[in-house]
Amino acid sequence: MPAREAHRAEHRTTDHAGNPGTRRVSGESLVLRNYDDSTHDVHVTITDHDGETAFTRTVSVGPRDTISIQTRLDRAVYRVDVRLDNGVGDRADCLLGSDPNECAKIEAGNGVVSVVEGYF
Questions:
Q1: What is the pLDDT of residues 2-44, one digit of tens each?
Q2: Is residue 102 assigned to a domain?
Q3: Which of 29, 47, 88, 114 is the right S-S partner for 71, CB 3.0 to 4.6 Å?
Q4: Which residues, other chains included, contact 35 with Cβ-Cβ below 8 Å and sequence gap of 6+?
Q5: How much is the pTM?
Q6: Residue 19: what are its φ and ψ, rounded to 5°?
Q7: Separation between Cα atoms, residue 101 and residue 84, nearest integer Å
Q8: pLDDT at 50
Q9: Number of domains the chain is built from
């Protein structure tokens, strides 16, 4: 069973506005991207196969910004639930691990949010 988050996960903000073709991935389990011109608070809950909460966090994502978060969870398939500050949400089962494509990509824009497995 994955260890519960006992510390604040590291995150970094990357501005891709200057390099639209640039892709940067380095083991993050969550990649959040906001396509809107306003900031969104995104609530993320990750549950394991037993329905136990393995990770939960509310992240503020600035306009046209991308944030990566390392959850430090064991490699496994998790249910990733996301909800925007406007109440709109989505969920997907995602393989999370250390490989660049073993992540959940969360994208917000035009009042909607989506979550999919994999960065590419």
A1: 444 433 444 444 444 443 443 333 457 899 999 999 999 999 9
A2: yes
A3: 29
A4: 64, 107, 108, 109, 110
A5: 0.76
A6: -130, 75
A7: 24
A8: 96
A9: 1
